[in-house]
């Protein structure tokens, strides 16, 4: 079920909300939590009910192992072996569905074998609920004693606002909220703020992200080499599409949870304002960055090892982060690019070299924009073709009015039809949106800042209504969120 659908907004969310608080008003708290769990499972099964047993099996298996680790009564060696088994089982499940065909295809290519691919359908949200439960196992291994009921644990994993694409939450931050009696009463402040955030998220997705998707899909979808400006408009369109798509999802997730008086962690903090790559990753997909830091980078030694090992750790973490997003060489390259940039920034810091603020921002933004090409392109061939277009290697076409001012130019520069390979109606509106989007991400307050100063008054009510009306009116077609594919 999509957040940006009439089914979710008009039926599922209001009905789940009404039943949950009705049961709590009757003091049937356990039944209310059970109903919320069933609603979350229904939300998941709506996509493909055949994948529901995989989710349920993962929940039960990790719960049983986590309960065993939480006892802390066995020998350290047995507990460590149990933890390693649990991590291996979770990663094995993820690898089977997400990477088996990728490995077979590459084995066939490099070894000239003819193994048949499995053609497995990727279970929705498997990357997210796998990381969620690995974190749970590691936490109870480090600090035994925290034990929950199966009902509480199942709701922690399946709670529908965060189930599909995050934010990635910790059990110690979420499960206690479900048992807090004060959170089982209707809170009008949270209703107002939650609806406001849902409205913002819908507007980001339906109005902004889906508009940029028209150009991004057209540019990345063509096999014709793009000219200079076509390639740049395409790459920038995807850069803003991804930002508003994923941050919009996070806003709706946080807003939906707030309706139930549940607080989810923020996942974005104006990442395109970052002035270095480290700052970018402290702002972009914050919960994933924290997970990779706490459960991979630090256990590998972090920055407590020598400089060579530190750089190797950084690159490895980002390589695995790229592979987590998708089974493909483009995702691997994207991860290596970001890992290399982070390693270079660490060396830059140690050299204590300064850079003008605007230049630092420009370099960071353009690096992120170029790296997103590998994130979006279907294969390496298309990614390289896009990079060539951005470098002018596929030809340069400039508006005709510039011809008198260009005194020296190469033969491949032409004047007139600047967008020869992308249809005009696929590029005109997004092209006008680009400077507006840049101004929004750089100068406007983000959702976190707006939420921190939110007051339920006439102005906020009017803003919420406008956001919903405009978004609902524009929902002619329903498109998936980008991160649903991961």
TrEMBL record:
<dbReference type="Pfam" id="PF03062">
    <property type="entry name" value="MBOAT"/>
</dbReference>
<keyword id="KW-1133">Transmembrane helix</keyword>
<dbReference type="InterPro" id="IPR051085">
    <property type="entry name" value="MB_O-acyltransferase"/>
</dbReference>
<feature type="transmembrane region" description="Helical">
    <location>
        <begin position="82"/>
        <end position="100"/>
    </location>
</feature>
<feature type="transmembrane region" description="Helical">
    <location>
        <begin position="6"/>
        <end position="23"/>
    </location>
</feature>
<keyword id="KW-1003">Cell membrane</keyword>
<feature type="transmembrane region" description="Helical">
    <location>
        <begin position="150"/>
        <end position="170"/>
    </location>
</feature>
<feature type="transmembrane region" description="Helical">
    <location>
        <begin position="456"/>
        <end position="475"/>
    </location>
</feature>
<feature type="transmembrane region" description="Helical">
    <location>
        <begin position="357"/>
        <end position="375"/>
    </location>
</feature>
<dbReference type="GO" id="GO:0042121">
    <property type="term" value="P:alginic acid biosynthetic process"/>
</dbReference>
<keyword id="KW-0012">Acyltransferase</keyword>
<keyword id="KW-0808">Transferase</keyword>
<keyword id="KW-0812">Transmembrane</keyword>
<comment type="similarity">
    <text>Belongs to the membrane-bound acyltransferase family.</text>
</comment>
<dbReference type="GO" id="GO:0016746">
    <property type="term" value="F:acyltransferase activity"/>
</dbReference>
<dbReference type="InterPro" id="IPR004299">
    <property type="entry name" value="MBOAT_fam"/>
</dbReference>
<feature type="transmembrane region" description="Helical">
    <location>
        <begin position="53"/>
        <end position="70"/>
    </location>
</feature>
<dbReference type="InterPro" id="IPR028362">
    <property type="entry name" value="AlgI"/>
</dbReference>
<feature type="transmembrane region" description="Helical">
    <location>
        <begin position="120"/>
        <end position="138"/>
    </location>
</feature>
<dbReference type="InterPro" id="IPR024194">
    <property type="entry name" value="Ac/AlaTfrase_AlgI/DltB"/>
</dbReference>
<feature type="transmembrane region" description="Helical">
    <location>
        <begin position="30"/>
        <end position="47"/>
    </location>
</feature>
<keyword id="KW-0472">Membrane</keyword>
<feature type="transmembrane region" description="Helical">
    <location>
        <begin position="427"/>
        <end position="444"/>
    </location>
</feature>
<dbReference type="GO" id="GO:0005886">
    <property type="term" value="C:plasma membrane"/>
</dbReference>
<protein>
    <submittedName>
        <fullName>Acetyltransferase</fullName>
    </submittedName>
</protein>
<feature type="transmembrane region" description="Helical">
    <location>
        <begin position="186"/>
        <end position="203"/>
    </location>
</feature>
<feature type="transmembrane region" description="Helical">
    <location>
        <begin position="314"/>
        <end position="337"/>
    </location>
</feature>
